Amino acid sequence: MATAKREQLIQEAEKLAAKGRLDAAIEQFQKALKQGAPDGALLNRLGDLLLKANRVGEAVAAYQQAADVYAQMGFTLKAVAAEKKANRADPQRTDTYERLAEFYYKLGMPVEGRQQLLTLADWYLRNRKVADAIKVYRKLAELEPSNFQARAKLVDLLASSGDIAAASAELDHLGQLLLSRGHVDESVKLVERALEMQLSLGSFGPALLNALVTTGRLPTALDLVRKLEPSAVAPDLAVAMGRVLLEAGDIGAARDLVERALPEVGERTEVVQLYGDILLRVGETEAAKEKLLPTIDRLMAAKDLERAGQLIKRLLKANPRDIDVLERGLKVFDRRQDGEFFSVLEGALADAYYQAGRRQEAAELYMELAQR
User: Fold this and answer.
1) Is 167 among the domain residues?
2) pLDDT range class, residue 19, cuts 50, 70, 90
3) How far apart are alpha carbons 84 and 87 in whole angstroms?
4) Where do the coiled-coil regions begin and end (predicted)?
5) Residue 229's pLDDT band (boundaries 50, 70, 90)?
6) What does the alpha-carbon distance between residue 351 and residue 83 come to, in Å, rounded to a whole number?
7) What sign results for the dihedral spanned by CA atoms 263, 264, 265, 271?
8) Which H or E run includes 61?
């Protein structure tokens, strides 16, 4: 509530303003402001007089103070009105665009807020202030995480400024976001753009290739693989490329890529599984077994029986009478849940024991089967 002293000063200021004595009126308003709590309306009026007196910088400051007071009181619409006055007073003041955007987003008006930031970014770019434009687009990306256009523009700006690491990181984030929304075509275009800018594909590249294979778009995946330089890709991407090539029937190229990645990612189950598939496809059954069995044992120890079972089935498809694999199969599969398949495994193991000359073990297993 305004004090009596403040009211008196305001009345005197208005009388001076009416007489055209702007500087004297401004002085009285400034004194009035010191007589109590910050007042948005009073600051707004002071801004008007300062602008009329052609004291633009001070007018902008007064309007922005008024906007802050209104915002703190929860009157965001009034804050917008005051900040618009600051913007009209000096359109070159870049901070007014950011402040307006902030107020608009608080009001739940993203279209208006976005327009303020895009206007500011455009001004920076026209004046060759790329670093400042990047900051604005980063702000927009923070405010609207799913704004694909803003993130794509940010990637372009970062790349053009020479910050390849930051551009690659932002591209990876954008790519993952696109894939999570099912925008596969846009993801493909993003990869092609990234290749033009020589950016790293991060985890997005492998994710896209896997998604293309999974959704039956092998030709598109193969086209992307052919555009990549095998010697320059990260291990995860090399593995994904290998999966595409294997699906396309180019087993030799797939093997080369996966073997190149093995020293760094060779302990991962999905990589071992892929490499095992490659070895099985070229008839190197023992090599595949040597590679897959330790992984099967590791999965069994971790109680990940589903993936262990998948690997066992792969090996058995190549050699249905392998004792080591069959024995593990009986530990992985459950007689109650996988009854028919479990019985097939037992019969196959009994036959394998017999053929290997392990007659006692074969007899015991045959006996168990006969008693069921």
Assistant:
1) no
2) confident
3) 5
4) none
5) confident
6) 86
7) negative
8) helix 56-72
Q: Is residue 104 part of a domain?
A: no
Average pLDDT, integer, range 96-120: 96
Q: What single string gives the DSSP state of each residue in 251-298?
A: HHHHHHHHHHHHHHHTTSHHHHHHHHHHHHHTT-HHHHHHHHHHHHHH
Determine, yes or no, domain membership for 328.
no
State whether the Cα torsion 10-12-13-17 is positive or negative. positive
* H or E element, residue 312: helix 305-318
Structure tokens at 262: 């093995």
Residue type, 302: A
For residue 332, give Cα distances in angstroms to 63, 274, 311, 320.
Answer: 73, 20, 11, 16
Position 231 pLDDT exceeds 70: no
Structure-token match 């007689």, residue found:
335
- List Cβ neighbours of 266 (8 Å cut-off, separation of 6 or more): 272, 275
- Tell whether the torsion through CA atoms of 159, 163, 165 and 169 is positive or negative: negative
Sequence-distant (≥ 6) Cβ neighbours of residue 369 within 8 angstroms: 343, 346, 347, 350
Q: What span, in angstroms and rounded, lies between the C-alpha atoms of 89 and 209?
A: 53
What's the domain count of the chain? 1
Long-range pairs for 87-94 at CB < 8 Å and ≥24 separation? 89/47, 89/51, 89/56, 89/59, 89/60, 89/63, 90/56, 90/57, 90/60, 93/60, 94/120, 94/123, 94/124, 94/132
Token pair listed for 229: 């330089």
Structure tokens given for 261: 């990645």
For the domain that residue 5 is a member of, what is the CATH number? 1.25.40.10
pLDDT, tens only, 21-44: 888 888 887 888 888 888 899 999
Note the pLDDT tens digit of each residue in 128-137.
Answer: 999 999 999 9
94-106 and 110-126 helices, crossing angle to 10°: 160
Q: Which domain holds residue 45?
A: 1-86
The pTM (predicted TM-score) of the whole model is: 0.72
Estimate the share of the chain in helix, then strand, then coil, as percent rounded to the nearest 5: 80, 0, 20
- How far is the C-alpha of 128 from the C-alpha of 160, rounded, in Å? 12
Q: How far is CA 123 from CA 33, 99, 132, in A?
A: 35, 16, 10
Indicate whether 38 belongs to any domain.
yes
